[in-house]
Amino acid sequence: MSSSGVLQARLRRWTSPERPVRIYLKMEDDQETAAFEDVLWATYHNRLPDAEKMTVVRALSIAQTADKYVVERVMSMCAAWLGEQGGFSWDEMLAVCSAPFGIRERYPVTVQERVMSTLVEQLGDLELSMIAPEQKKELLALPQPALFTLLRSDALAVAAESTVAVVALGWALHRGK
């Protein structure tokens, strides 16, 4: 609006109690509505809201909404906030890896390192992970970006290259791909 002098003049002369323009946005649910409000707040205050109450899931929700409405600055703020976090729990790591590509590509290197650290800590020996029922379940449930990150890790214990192939094939069959 600041770049249009004509529009500014019309808005200043507007005498009706009603706004001259109303924009209706249909939100999927209350979570998206809250995230959209956070995106607007961050846009105008140039920082994320409630820093002490911010969680990984909330930051990702804000980032996804910012991505949907192409608010680059807020997406970058969320990625930077994620990069400042000390580490991720298993569920947080899954949420970070499940984010859309447009958000994942903005992650700083520290986020990728922490994701890899969480993966290797939980599933560090690939053969043992395929034998232990709980670890195998976690391994097969990984989102694709997390699996690729794990398999690329230099810290991953693998007895043979065929183990990587077996895991990748098992993961694909489990996913039905």
Please give a handful of descriptors for the protein shown.
177 residues; mainly alpha; 2 domains
Question: What's the arrangement of secondary structure elements?
Answer:
Layout: H1 5-13, H2 30-45, H3 56-68, H4 72-84, H5 90-98, H6 101-104, H7 109-123, H8 126-131, H9 133-140, H10 144-152, H11 161-175
Helix pairs in contact: 2-3, 3-4, 5-7
Provide a compact summary of the structure.
By secondary structure, the protein is mostly helical. It has 11 helices and no strands.
Structure description:
It is a single chain. It is built from 11 helices and no strands. Helix 3 (56-68) packs antiparallel against helix 4. 66% of the residues lie in helices and 0% in strands. It is mainly alpha-helical and 177 residues long. It is elongated. It has 2 domains: 1-84, no CATH class; 109-177, no CATH class. It has helices at residues 5-13, 30-45, 56-68, 72-84, 90-98, 101-104, 109-123, 126-131, 133-140, 144-152, 161-175.
